[in-house]
Amino acid sequence: MNIKSLFKKTPPENYNRFQIFIDKCQPIHTAKGYFFTFFLLPFILVFLFECLGYKSVFGGFKFLFSHPVPYLCNMLIISVTFSIALLFRKQICIIATMTFIWFVGAFVNFILLCCRVTPLTRSDLMLLSDAKSIISKYLNIFQVILIAVLVFVVILGIIIAFIQSPSVRGKLDRLHSIFIILGLYVLTWLLFLIGWNTGTLENQFHELSKSYKKNGFVYCFSRSLVDVGVSKPDNYSEEAMEELLEGSETETNAPVSYRLKDPNIVIVQLESFFNINRLKDVTFTENPIPNFTKYMEQCGSGFFNVPVVGAGTVNSEFEVLTGMNIDDFGAGEYPYKTILTQSTCETIAYDLTEDGYTSHVIHNNTGDFYGRNTVYPNMGFQSFTPIEYMWPEEFTAMGWAKDSILTDEISKALDSTEKQDFVFTISVQGHGSYPGGNDTDYVKHVDISSTQIEDESYLNQLRYYANQLYEMDEFVGELIRTLAMRNENTILLMYGDHCPSLDFTDESFTSGTIYQTEYFIWNNMGLEFPKKDIEAYKVGSEILASLGVTRGAVNAFHQTYGLQLENGEIAEEEYLERLKELEYDILYGDKLAYEGINPYEPTELQMGTLPISISDVSTNIAGNVLVTGENFTPGSIVHINDNVCETFYVDSTMLLLHDTELISGDEVTVWQKSLSSTSPYIYR
């Protein structure tokens, strides 16, 4: 029995009704068929998608009347995808399947917009492998099971529909169909050109959430699928790059005494952190972030302009470390998932290597999230300590490790070498989601109230978030006290990576925008940093300039052209265009900035600040296997001859195995998840 035979027996009456309906729908090669397939259905779908995107039943009307050209572009994109069906006999099934795929994308976009500010892009599809590590923070087990069942039912339904749906009778005129497909494609492209040239359709997205509302989900998501990397600038040439590089030659302005001190440089990126006191219509029993606001008053500080809202931590991270503008890359692109998996890239870590610095990364979340463990060697780091190499004891109600653990980890990194260190730290405690129930179990340090916000669930979310900020702020104070007590010169930069996913808009704040968090630069050397707002991609060169470090093409560019920009010698548009030229040259072009050869080699990344090792394997009186060594963690798993063993963590020097037999010649290794392993120990 084949699969098709399972669906052959249909009650004659139902079958006849179904067949009558199909007979009416079948001919696409008619005026009515073309009208329905390539105009009416796309019109309805775009309308529904924008209702979801605007999270309003009137969203479709708003998009139609406010942005008619993008509306038509969205319709044509859907029509082009439908036109492929003309080449096959199962035309109705293919169109129905394409409709379903588009609808799923729009619905997922709606769900994401309910959880965060950033809409669906190609990068989210590339993060599917990471989704399992955070899905429990947003969905309960019932919701996960329900989604799995729905996916199964839908796939089964598509298979049944494909088998049951009728085929076009007679001979297919594929040549006629190809002309229709090409015609739709040309018409779509011409409308794109009209939209781009008239400014009614964006060719480059600077603020994704606003771009999706202006240009439509279908257009923006489609752009994100094909628009990857930095596009080649129109004036890119050897002559243009020579002129740009000549203008980037700079002399250090830092006093010699500072250049000789070679301080430790510590950068801390605080997850979803911003000055919550900026919120309108909310009152706190006390300042949730007293330490951060105190150091903003005492140190160089201001608004920190970030490229993302509610999500996309690694793009703020990318800008700070590389000095590159994420706006120049594809819509919603994560370079950590694209170019940096293939190529090295100039970073602060590389710029400091020649001065003898050792560069570390610390993150109290999993090491493979966003592919960091594979990307950091291409960014010049020597060690990476994710949560698998820590001993976390405190977690939030949502299961994120608290940031208090980071103070000791930063100290370990600074203690691990005799020379100066560059330590880049990414926190996680402030990560969403934020529970709206009033029964959520967590320590309440501050309380909030509002005479304007009536939604108690939303107030509970704000209350939970404010109390996480309070504890993150305690970490800020403790870290500075710890660094101040060390007998080493240190520069510390702290900033928020983006505003939280709490449905904030610019109107939610007394000052600033949703694309602005805050920063401060503290040091114990007497250096003075100005109070000013700053772009995330400029802050690294600001610190390096204070020490007289001019190394690196991007760093030198910001130091030179940035000064010209501040003095009004060049316009911001010219500044950004030249930066884009440099980015393209370094990552995708002829590398003229480096005389045609990429000078950066991938590093040998050590997982964990202190290496994990095995010193002995033995069996005790009770018959248990004891694995002794150094720097074990609760995430350490013993493998014997590539077989995973149930491992019990005793302490940092001992792991225990029950009911395990060893024979001479067995190979014993200790793994930290799948991130790294010790050298093999041969049992004798």
List the SSEs and their pairings:
Elements: H1 12-25, H2 31-54, H3 59-66, H4 68-83, H5 91-115, H6 122-126, H7 128-131, H8 135-138, H9 141-164, H10 174-198, H11 208-215, H12 217-226, H13 238-248, H14 256-259, E1 264-270, E2 283-284, H15 290-298, E3 300-305, H16 313-322, H17 348-353, E4 358-363, H18 372-375, E5 383-385, H19 406-415, E6 421-426, E7 448-449, H20 456-485, E8 490-496, E9 516-523, E10 534-535, H21 539-546, H22 553-566, H23 572-587, E11 606-607, E12 613-619, E13 625-630, E14 636-640, E15 643-644, E16 648-651, E17 654-657, E18 667-672, E19 676-677, E20 681-682
Word description of this protein:
- The protein has 684 residues and is α/β, with parallel strands linked by helices.
- Helix 2 packs across helix 3 (59-66), helix 2 (31-54) crosses helix 4 (68-83) and helix 4 (68-83) packs across helix 5.
- The N and C termini lie far apart (58 Å).
- The strands form four sheets. The chain has a nine-stranded mixed β-sheet. Strands 14, 15, 18, 19 and 20 form a five-stranded antiparallel β-sheet that branches.
- Residues 3-7, 18-22 and 252-258 have low confidence and may be disordered.
- It contains 23 helices and 20 strands.
- The chain is globular and about 80 Å long.
- A hairpin with a 5-residue loop joins strand 12 (613-619) and strand 13.
